[in-house]
Amino acid sequence: MKMPLPDDGVIARRGDIVAAMRGIVPGEGVIVDEEELKVFECDGLLAYRQLPLIVVLPETTEQVSRILRYCHENGVKVVPRGAGTGLSGGALPLADGITLGLGKFNKILEIDFYNRCVVAQPGVTNLSITSAVDGDGYYYAPDPSSRIACSIGGNVAENAGGMHCLKYGLTTNNLLAVEMVLMSGEVVRLGGKHLDSGGLDLMGVVTGSEGLLGVITEVTVRILPKPTSARVVLLGFPSSNAGGRCVAGIIGAGIIPGAMEMMDKPAIAAMEQFVSSGYWLDVEAILIVELDGPEVEVDHLLGVVEGIARDVGCSHVRVSEGEDERRQFWAGRMSAFPSVGRLSPDYMTMDGTIPRHQLPAVLTRMAQLSDSYGLRVANVFHAGDGNLHPLILYDANRPGEMEKAEAFGADILRLCVEVGGVLSGEHGIGVEKRDLMGDMFTDQDMVQQSRLKCAFDGHGLLNPGKVFPILHRCAEMGKLNVRDGRLPFPDIPRF
């Protein structure tokens, strides 16, 4: 995994850059000590590490604007960073770049029940938004497993999802507005408290842009009334294929559960040991299906889902009888990633997405790949929308195992694309999947993405080295083919 070579000229100016940053962010907002910088050397993808040139922790939009304007004028690279929980290396620092931490932007600015929205700074954690409105009967729907720690700004950057994204959508479906600072220092606002904005869908461009287009300093999200009833049914299966057929059957019957999650036997054992959620240990796969809405509807659908499950060979069924038991059933799945840490010294989390009907075939092929590479894999995934999270288990202290895990993960992601899926469902591209972009996108697709990047960040200073396997200069993107001394389409105004 290669990153851009550090600019020795920028590194030589480190003292001047530190002085300039301290002039903008007083007090302890500029970190230069090597031991303290190590806190920021990676995000949740621990396989890759790099000390940043310095870390700057602003507290206001005005400070962010001044920082970016200085970096734009002086050719200094900037890597935006939220809570550091990302799993694709999107916040991997640069030796010649400033890591811009947004952890001090941690306030909820407004709760507007009339318009059913919350305005928050980007460092507010996902769970804090729900906690702030829970007492009034509302919640924020996207709920990543890391919701206790991940920031809402990071959720926007990666277009995070979570257990309930099947019915209620990912971040992009629940985002109303952002305030964003461009690399030039200009502050722009997109969207508002209304559902949809007119004109170009710039909100859609910014959501999932992974810190490549601007730095988000304020977020407005919609909140929803809590459903009148929500119950969970646990379904145990003798094989993962049977569980996959059950998923297809439920969706094929026109049922859209509030959430539908699946895990295989290694993951089940780890979760049950970690949390004790009441999962069966004598099954090969468990499907968690949550149904919400009016009580009479939920009761009816529970019976329909159980019937579908029995038809494909379900061997165990258990329905939650109260809110405490519902939470208990979810506790294991919500702790999936730390639970799997008990199985191996290291693991790598994948994030491919596939068409639902391909689930049995992909699970079979992943088992074959596991045997081929000699590495175990534990599977947890958002079964309803086909977002897979295979956890490849390895030991980085054994020579060559990390490289095998990387190759195994790349093959899983290529498999996802091969069957009609995509490289990422919610974790983003970052450095983890950057070099696989060519497996999914054509050269023309890549050029168009580069042009979009250039429109926002003409000098390529925001989070460079991420996403594009071949980095183009913006000047190259703007070249025109001139034939016989004539510009093409001379009637079109040029800027």
UniProtKB/TrEMBL annotation:
Names of the cofactor(s): FAD
Superkingdom of the source species: Bacteria
Keywords assigned: FAD, Flavoprotein, Oxidoreductase
InterPro entries from the UniProt entry: FAD-bd_oxidored_4_C, FAD-bd_PCMH, FAD-bd_PCMH-like_sf, FAD-bd_PCMH_sub2, FAD-linked_Oxase-like_C, FAD-linked_OxidoTrans_Type4, Oxid_FAD_bind_N, Vanillyl_alc_oxidase_C-sub2
PANTHER family on file: GLYCOLATE OXIDASE SUBUNIT GLCD
Protein name: Glycolate oxidase
Domain FAD-binding PCMH-type, chain residue ranges per copy: 48-226
GO MF annotations, alphabetized: FAD binding; oxidoreductase activity
